[in-house]
Design goal:
Chain lengths: 496, 76
């Protein structure tokens, strides 16, 4: 009898799994969760600030928190915090927790209580996640084909962090939060925005924030992929954007063509692609910078910065990347024997990601250099024409000032203390369980690195000539507590 | 990155792939250089329908700020 009851309960519970996304009945390119539909409310595009937060579990969440805290303290004209000028936050995996939490709860996150709650309680959920997976009732739920470990994680994030909020709750004001996952079939970035969900004939506004964060942080192996339904076969009177039609029609430039072909596959192959399986955004882009790069370099993006420059709407562009990358030192090269299977697997899952992250940061920086050079060439040429009373050149949009700022642990160097601090930070594990001191150290590192960044100081001085940087430092005792030094050998106590 | 000027006898709003890029002329009546990424794009002008051609597909490539690609519209 009791076995039957358990079976009935199990069938009922298993039968409850519902799709994480809803169908969009009628496509409307002017509504939904898009950059252009967000009210500006005193945060116009003139000073255009983009943040990109990397993956890396609690390490990344606490590090990006510290960067945001420093931006909140960076006051410029009329004591306005630079954080209030942030237009877009693009994030991956661990960084997505901070980005989404800030978008929902704003400044309360930076009070003493808010900080303790977020960093030391809510984001430290690893034990609870494992506990839920081991809870017998959830075994039955996990037997369902439509409910997996990632759905369990999303439930947990919803209860602990995001309080049932959906993307509709992000539509009230900037910044525009872009949570990035990876489409397993394409191996490409998949973002939780209406521009992306249009292709699925689905309404992202009804999707829970916890779902987007779970997809963005679905680390392969530990968590299962998150599945969203593609409603394209059911139709929504979708109208393909002109840029997408043109991109598909022309193989040059190849990057634009491939992006167009991949995006169009949700509609063009709607019968074969009825579901989209998403994994950790870090697999396609571990610092969340590829979306901003597309917006900075093309007119195709839903929030194209080039379009804003052409319209004369942007005066200054500041891109800040918080990169919580690790660097595990190995002894592989001391031995003739090849590294074992786990070493190889560890390397192939993180090595290519780190290389790609480095490339992404360089791409943005190089692009800004090229734009700066073009504007300088224009100015020089015009001056020479003016000097010999020549014809004026065609006009350009007002000169735009570009700043690319990368905040990463490797900026701690040049002294034994800094070397020790860097090694400590780089060797912290990627998990959602760190000690309180480790979390505090990461938070403080994000803060100090931004405040002391030469590129950041240059950008702030450009924003407000009267701006002066704050003093900030890290207490060596905190480093010692976060990463205790191994005991030293003494004559009476030799270590083996 | 690509650089383009759109010529027309009057100041008109320029649309590239249906997205506004501001006007073709600046306040002093000079052509404005627009930044348009390389590749195939559809150009058209806003305002009255007295433009020829009404729209045109143009491939942007090999341009510079000092040598922008001209996209020419005339009065119909």
């Amino acid at each position: 009898m009791s076995a039957l009851a358990v079976l009935v309960v199990a069938v009922l519970v298993v039968g409850c799994a519902a799709p994480v996304n809803q169908r969009l009945r009628t496509f409307d390119g002017q509504s939904g969760y898009r950059y252009d539909t967000l009210p500006k409310d005193g945060n116009g595009d003139d000073l255009f600030v983009v943040l990109a937060f990397s993956g890396g579990g609690t390490r990344a969440a606490a590090f990006s928190y510290g960067v945001m805290e420093a931006l909140n303290d960076a006051r410029h004209t009329n004591n306005r915090p630079l954080l209030e000028d942030v237009d877009v936050i693009s994030s991956v995996s661990g960084g997505s927790f901070t980005a989404a939490y800030y978008a929902l709860f704003r400044d309360t996150m930076f009070t003493d209580e808010g900080r303790t709650t977020f960093l030391h309680e809510k984001i430290q959920f690893q034990d609870e996640l494992i506990g839920r997976a081991l809870w017998p009732v959830n075994w039955f739920r996990l037997m369902s084909a439509t409910f997996d470990r990632i759905n369990l994680a999303a439930e947990l994030y919803d209860e602990r962090l995001f309080e049932g909020k959906t993307f509709r709750d992000l539509m009230g004001r900037k910044p525009y939060i872009i949570l990035n996952a990876t489409d397993m079939s394409l191996g490409q970035r998949f973002e939780f925005t209406q521009d992306q969900f249009d292709l699925l004939c689905s309404d992202v506004a009804s999707v829970k924030i916890s779902t987007g964060v779970a997809a963005s942080s679905a680390f392969p192996g530990l968590l299962s992929p998150l599945t969203v339904k593609n409603f394209a076969a059911e139709g929504c009177a979708y109208r393909e954007p002109t840029w997408l039609t043109k991109a598909k029609a022309h193989t040059n430039p190849a990057r634009r063509w491939v992006r167009g072909r991949d995006l169009a596959s949700y509609q063009d192959a709607k019968d074969e692609r009825r579901f989209v399986h998403l994994l950790d955004g870090g697999l396609a882009d571990n610092i969340g910078l590829r979306g901003p790069y597309a917006a900075l370099t093309s007119n195709d993006s839903g929030w194209s910065v080039l379009q804003k420059i052409n319209q004369g709407a942007v005066n200054r562009v500041v891109v800040i990347t918080a990169n919580a990358k690790t660097k595990h030192r190995t002894t592989w090269d001391r031995h003739e024997s090849a590294p074992g299977l786990f070493s190889v697997l560890g390397f192939v899952t993180t090595g290519p990601m780190d290389n790609y992250s480095f490339d992404s940061v360089q791409l943005v920086s190089d692009y800004f250099d090229r734009l700066r050079e073009s504007f300088q060439n224009y100015a020089v040429c015009q001056r020479r024409l003016d000097a010999c009373q020549g014809e004026p050149l065609p006009g350009v949009a007002r000169p735009v000032d570009f700043h690319a700022i990368e905040i990463a642990f490797d900026a701690f160097y040049g002294s034994p203390d800094n070397d020790r601090l860097r090694r400590c930070l780089e060797e912290l594990p990627t998990s959602f369980k760190l000690s309180g001191d480790q979390v505090e150290l990461l938070r403080r590192a994000g803060y100090v690195l931004l405040v002391k960044s030469g590129d950041f100081n240059k950008a702030m001085t450009a924003v407000d000539a009267a701006w002066t940087p704050k003093n900030a430092s890290i207490d060596p005792a905190l480093v010692e507590r976060a990463c205790p030094a191994p005991p030293k050998a003494t004559p009476g106590n030799p270590l083996r | 990155m690509g650089w383009v000027i759109v010529t027309f006898p009057e100041s008109r709003e320029v649309f590239v792939d249906d997205k506004s890029q501001g006007d073709n002329l600046d306040a002093s009546g000079r052509c404005r250089v627009l930044i348009i990424d390389d590749g195939l794009h559809t150009f058209r002008l806003g305002g009255a329908a007295d433009v020829a051609p009404p729209a045109q597909d143009v491939t942007v490539a090999n341009t510079s700020i000092l040598d922008p690609l001209p996209v020419v519209f005339t009065k119909a």
